[in-house]
Design goal:
2 helices; 4 domains; Immunoglobulin-like; alpha+beta; seven-stranded mixed sheet; extended; 404 residues
């Protein structure tokens, strides 16, 4: 009797422990936290200089969780970050800018430290239960190389220019990134040409505000249009310090007029052909403006720096708003070598950017042509054998039928 009561008591104890564990599992949860990259290496930083990098913090919990940051190591005083306490949750990763600002008296060399990320917080779950959320501690390792060698390096990209009604400013925007270790303000030079790109209309220079090392940003400049007539213009933008340049086009419009625009997307041609082949050439044009267009393609085929053939559409294509159409041409090469096919589309007193493509033509005794000839001979041989067998079978059938 006593043994049975003891077993019953032990059973109830086990059930109680299991139930408690289940309740604790429901009322508490653990979340995984991640950081990318796990380490930062600041190279070629000057004394009293500056460098920054972003890190991204993620978590697999939907509960908004407070995260704290602390710095350690022999560069602890150099390390700066967005804020000492921030919140992160699943679906809302947190990007933090980590920067270093070395003092003026530090010797050259490599210095290390780390940023500790930790969090422990009580939140409210969706069911209204109190949920204990405990996150692990993570360390982001930081290495900083101190140098006395100044480096000027930058990148300019994403050049864009707007159209404008006559009298309004034309807006130029571009992105710039300082990849060196000194502050920079690169010169931006503009050469504005007429529609035919033969007459230089104006020249402009701009200087952005100083860009701190490792920082990037978008810059906007206004170009007065009071001296520009209505029409299309080409602008050559160059940033010599960043070894960057680009050619863009913009329009000066009448007040309230609909904007005409189109893009010659590409010229399509098979990359290889043989002498005397008929080679299709397809130019694809897209209407990207605010009104229908009548468009013509004008181009040329060059071989050994000589114009071999002109390409010009017989009649203009009518291209509705937002539509796309193709200009089709054919070319029969007479010599082997490399041919350059190029052209533009002309529409509404404007012209598109030029596109080009290369066609390679094999010599007559090339392996490709030999294989092609051999394949033709083989095909003719197979057909001849089939015809012979069919005729033979037919004769056999007729002879057998006549005997019956």
């Amino acid at each position: 009797m006593g043994e049975k009561m003891g077993e019953s008591k032990r059973g109830r104890t086990v059930l109680t422990i299991v139930a408690a564990l289940i309740i604790l599992m429901q009322l508490s949860s653990a979340a995984n936290i991640g950081v990318s990259p796990a380490g930062i290496n600041f190279q070629n930083v000057l004394r009293s200089g500056y460098a920054q990098r972003p890190i991204t913090l993620t978590i697999d919990s939907e509960i908004s969780t407070e995260v704290e940051f602390e710095t350690y190591g022999n560069i602890s005083d150099w390390i700066n970050f967005t804020s000492k306490t921030l919140s992160v949750s699943k679906g809302n990763p947190l990007q933090i800018i980590i920067s270093v600002s070395p003092p003026s008296d530090v010797p050259n060399g490599n210095y290390t430290g780390f940023l500790r990320i930790k969090s422990s917080r009580l939140g409210d779950s969706k069911e209204g239960h109190a949920t204990g959320l405990v996150l692990p501690t993570l360390d982001v390792y930081i290495v900083t190389e101190i140098t006395d060698q100044e480096i000027q390096q930058c990148e300019a990209s994403n050049f864009k220019i707007s159209n404008a009604e006559q009298g309004e400013d034309v807006i130029l925007t571009l992105d710039m990134e300082n990849r060196g270790n000194i502050k920079i303000s690169p010169k931006i030079s503009l050469d504005i040409w007429d529609q035919s790109s033969t007459n230089l209309i104006a020249q402009k220079e701009f200087f952005p505000s100083q860009i701190t090392p490792t920082k990037q940003g978008q810059f906007l400049f206004k170009i007065p249009s009071t001296d520009l007539d209505i029409g299309q213009y080409w602008v050559e933008i160059s940033v010599p310090d960043c070894y960057s340049s680009q050619i863009l086009t913009f329009d000066i419009l009448e007040e309230g007029s609909l904007y005409a625009a189109g893009t010659l997307q590409k010229i399509i041609v098979e990359p290889w052909a043989d002498i005397d082949d008929i080679v299709p050439i397809t130019a694809i044009f897209q209407n990207t403006g605010e009104k229908p267009l009548e468009a013509r393609f004008i181009g040329k085929i060059m071989h050994e720096n000589k114009i071999i053939q002109l390409l010009e559409s017989d009649e203009p294509l009518f291209i509705p708003l937002s539509a796309q159409d193709n200009f089709q041409f054919y070319f029969t090469p007479q010599k082997a070598g490399k041919y350059i096919i190029s052209g533009r589309v002309f529409y509404d007193n404007k012209q598109s950017y030029e596109q080009s493509v290369i066609l390679n033509v094999n010599p007559k005794n090339s392996i490709t042509q030999i294989l092609k000839t051999a394949s033709y001979i083989f095909l003719i041989l197979i057909i001849s054998i089939l015809v012979y067998k069919i005729r033979k079978e037919r004769r056999s059938y007729l002879n057998l039928k006549s005997r019956r």
